[in-house]
Design brief:
With about 300 residues, the chain is of the alpha+beta class. It has one domain: DD-peptidase/beta-lactamase superfamily (Beta-lactamase), CATH 3.40.710. It has 13 helices and seven strands. Strands 1, 2, 3, 4, 5, 6 and 7 form a seven-stranded mixed beta sheet that branches. The longest helix has 14 residues. The radius of gyration is 19 Å and the shape is globular. The chain starts with a strand and ends in a 5-residue tail after the last helix.
Length: about 300
């Protein structure tokens, strides 16, 4: 059972949006793009179960830095269950991983959460134990019993140039063990971070690490701002906005949450799989702009 209610008219609107914002190779684009779009009715500080639709939203795709949302939630869970103790260093690492998308911080956190370290190839029992330990985050995801996380794989570090040694071997033949997620699973993780967690002073405030300023004179100062060329660029500057983007030579992804008005909030996850999305800095802003315009005319009741 999905964590959101399907809304047929939003599915029709989503297809119409893609038809309008993509003037070339529409059918090919729909094969290479995945989207989950969920709206949430809010009233008196209570947010109801979301309603929405998707395209290829259960298709497994390499998530790039989107996987850092999972690692952030895992760090929160490890602290909550007293597997690790909250420290300033851990808080700084999670903030750098989510807000700045630091791969160094991500590497540190995965080592901490799984009890593994990178290094040269190893063999025998040591290698088997290392692989078992590195799979701990996947094992934890299964204990959550969330249907939308079925078959996803979140056990690899993120890299600037690529893995070496035991990390490269752990990817498997033809990278069969690389990280894989769906837009639905990403949306579920994002929903958990945004509205399901009861944040306390003695744990990480993951939501605060995803908050972004959409004012151009602010984010232009950071060349890696995760707004230009992504969903945030297509939205008004004055709205409350949270996001985590992923970008590499074969992918452009984004997971975003924003407040439309007092009664409606939106979660939009878009995965663009292929070099053409890496190069295209206009598509994501156009999709977000069209979704925002649709929501302005939506009767949430």
């Amino acid at each position: 059972m999905s964590f959101y209610n399907l809304r047929k008219e939003m599915g029709l609107a989503l297809n119409d949006i893609l038809d309008r914002v993509c003037s070339k190779n529409k059918e090919n684009l729909k094969n290479d793009i995945a989207i989950t779009w969920i709206n949430y009715k809010s009233e008196n500080n209570y947010i109801y179960k979301g309603f929405g639709s998707g395209i290829n939203n259960k298709k497994l795709i390499y998530p790039a830095s989107i996987v850092k949302l999972v690692y952030g939630l895992a760090a929160f869970s490890w602290i909550d269950t007293h597997k690790i103790l909250l420290s300033r260093e851990i808080s700084d690492a999670v903030e750098k991983m989510l807000f700045y998308s630091s791969n160094d911080a991500t590497s540190f956190l995965i080592d901490l959460l799984t009890g593994t370290t990178s290094g040269p190839c190893i063999e025998g029992d040591s290698w088997e134990k290392w692989k078992y330990q590195r799979s701990i985050i996947n094992d934890w995801l299964k204990t959550l019993n969330w249907d939308d996380l079925y078959e996803i794989n979140c056990c690899q570090k993120t890299w600037e140039d690529g893995p070496f040694g035991r990390e490269k071997e752990f990817y498997g033949i033809e990278n069969k063990n690389r990280n894989m997620m769906t837009t639905d699973s990403t949306a579920k993780i994002m929903e958990e971070i945004m509205i399901k967690i009861n944040y306390k002073k003695d744990n990480l405030n993951l939501r605060s690490f995803l908050k972004r300023n959409l004012k151009k004179n602010f984010f232009h100062k950071d060349p890696l701002n995760q707004i230009e060329g992504f969903l945030g660029e297509g939205l008004p500057e004055n709205i409350n906005f949270w996001s985590k983007a992923g970008l590499m030579s074969q992918a452009r992804h984004d997971a975003a949450w924003w407040v439309n008005n007092d009664s409606l909030q939106t979660l939009l996850v878009v995965f663009g799989n292929g070099e053409k999305y890496f190069k295209d800095e206009t598509l994501f802003p156009e999709i977000a702009k069209a979704v925002y315009k649709y929501n302005n005319n939506l009767d949430v009741y």
